[in-house]
């Protein structure tokens, strides 16, 4: 029998502290830059975001989302064969944050690894989980997580903290007779690698006093990404998914895109064509949660009845690198 994989449950976690745009305006008014918040709000559609407690790390957010997904799937930590964590805000450079999550969950029968391609991490991890289940009879249940805490890595006065919301989303993927994960597609363009990131702290530029003093150990936007990178790239990936999965755009019940710019999502829907109401825009409620925004949006959609059993769903994430990844699945 051919082995297939399907998503059986999802979960999400947002920290308790809510930070509104008005709060940020107050903070930036002291330096005469409150209008920056106004501009970001108008262009992105973001109205608020959640911030983790200082005692929390990325692994803590991941664990909370994982516990909700596991509870909904009716599985215990001991039932997990593998944990895949997608994040570009790890607890530390090494070891992998997924092993920290494994220990905190008590999932001692599970192997783990991290995937670090920013907002493309969760779709990439889902596709990886599906492939491993299909190829390996010893893997039957995989926990896939996307988690994000970029604000912790930014300078307090950096206006880009407007975008950074903390959170995590998770999914339980299991072996199935009928394929749930039906297609995957990937794109990248490393020519944009120097546009945004953390310059120091790796092998190209190890940490030094000079790097710390000049802020090179903190996340920075060096050059703005053109809107076309998503508005052209997302349709390309969507059509690849449709070709591989044997479906049309009209058949897509829910299309989840990286939740960073509401206008870009509408533009892409019009180009595909895809009805705008099928592509949720939740950045107003959750902010931009990077590696976690796709699973958070998926879980929100399921919980609020925007998608249900049998629906065709596409998940498309894109972020710094530049990396893009998409998956198509039947819930």
Q: Topology of this protein?
A:
Elements: E1 4-13, E2 17-20, H1 21-29, H2 34-44, E3 48-51, H3 58-73, E4 82-86, H4 97-105, E5 111-115, H5 121-135, E6 141-148, E7 167-176, E8 181-188, E9 196-197, H6 209-213, E10 220-221, H7 228-245, E11 254-257, H8 262-271, H9 283-286, H10 293-303, E12 312-319, E13 323-330
Parallel strand pairs: 4-5, 4-6, 11-12
Antiparallel strand pairs: 1-7, 2-3, 6-7, 8-13, 9-10, 12-13
Helix pairs in contact: 1-2, 3-4, 7-8
What would you say this structure looks like, in words?
The protein has 331 residues and is α/β, with parallel strands linked by helices. It has helices at 21-29, 34-44, 58-73, 97-105, 121-135, 209-213, 228-245, 262-271, 283-286, 293-303; strands at 4-13, 17-20, 48-51, 82-86, 111-115, 141-148, 167-176, 181-188, 196-197, 220-221, 254-257, 312-319, 323-330. The protein folds into two domains: 4-178, Peroxisomal Thiolase, Chain A, domain 1 (3-Layer(aba) Sandwich); 183-330, Peroxisomal Thiolase, Chain A, domain 1 (3-Layer(aba) Sandwich), CATH 3.40.47.10. The protein has ten helices and 13 strands. The strands form four sheets. Strands 1-7-6-4-5 form a five-stranded mixed beta sheet, with helices on both faces. It starts with a strand and ends with a strand.
